Amino acid sequence: MFPKRIPSMRRRRPRPPIAGIALPGGLIVLILLSIQQALALPFWGTAPQTSPTPTGTPTPERVLSSTPTLPPPTATPLPTRIPTPTGTPTPTPYPFFQEPLPPSDGTPRALRVPILMYHYISDPPPGADRLRLDLSVRPSQFEAHLQYLRQAGYETVSLSDLIFHLTQGKPLPPRPVVLTFDDGYRDAYEEAFPLLQRYGFRGTFFVLTGRADEGDPRYLSWEQIRRMSEAGMEIQLHGREHIPLNGRDEAFLFYHIIGGKQSIEAHTGRPVRFFAYPSSVYDETLIRFLEGYRFWGAVTTAYGADERLENRFLWPRIRIRGTDGVPQLAGKLQEFTGP
Ligand SMILES: [Zn+2]
């Protein structure tokens, strides 16, 4: 049920040796709990000298050091709504970022920043169907888009930048734009990433962690994701798999969303704060789940540009189609930003 451990965490936090003794499972849990309580250790038993926090918080040093603003552990809600077998302790042994939304200064704000939505940045394969053609922007065409954006004075910002503006009035550049790329295809690394760097732009990539876990050559690998993140690209979550997440129970959502979030955060060391709904379907349960686990927002495929705090789990985007040249891109942008 829980996502498998990632190698770096396995190295950092070895299982206590007692787990190897052949005893009934319930008895092992009881013994571990007793030891844990006696020693005031977290359930998974980190060696005391490697755990500098006196409260025994299960936050790895790597995560802590990368985010000095991480809230105190007492602010972290326990996943009490997750069905667990009776008698099993509730804390999750797999830490992940849960940053509260930046505190609002009380000033209501609204933005109309274009959030562009790309998928493939590559030449469609021979015989590609209409859907694939529609989702594919050729690299030369994409470069023309970037040239236009630069000439027109656009500067890329992140979705977090929008949140900091909406909550605290943090200034944005005069012509902000967010460039998002869905699905994490391999061409994001091979085509989009170098072009974005050449033009000094920053992209936001919504990836599928299951594809990276399996080493699917059509999708981004973890190594590519890590390099992109280190170069300043935003890596955010589209899901573990590309499956609809409406009508699901909490355990299912935990596996697919928190599992994916943990994987990205462990590989990049940076928080995952935003979600792109797979197939753009969602329901109240899903939105409340994201909010409960301190996501800052989510994007849909609804057409538009309308960012407010109130609709931050339903921010619309501007779909860029395979047929969109520079005039079409300019036309779409001018609907929201003026000429
Ligand atoms: Zn998608």
UniProtKB/TrEMBL annotation:
Residues 47-86 are annotated as: Disordered. One of its GO terms (cellular component) is extracellular region. Keywords: Carbohydrate metabolism, Glycosidase, Hydrolase, Polysaccharide degradation, Signal, Xylan degradation. It is found in: Secreted. Pfam families: Polysacc_deac_1. It comes from the Bacteria. InterPro entries: Glyco_hydro/deAcase_b/a-brl, NODB_dom, Polysacch_Deacetylase. GO terms for biological process: xylan catabolic process. GO terms for molecular function: hydrolase activity, acting on carbon-nitrogen (but not peptide) bonds; hydrolase activity, acting on glycosyl bonds. This is Predicted xylanase/chitin deacetylase. It comes from Thermoflexus hugenholtzii JAD2.
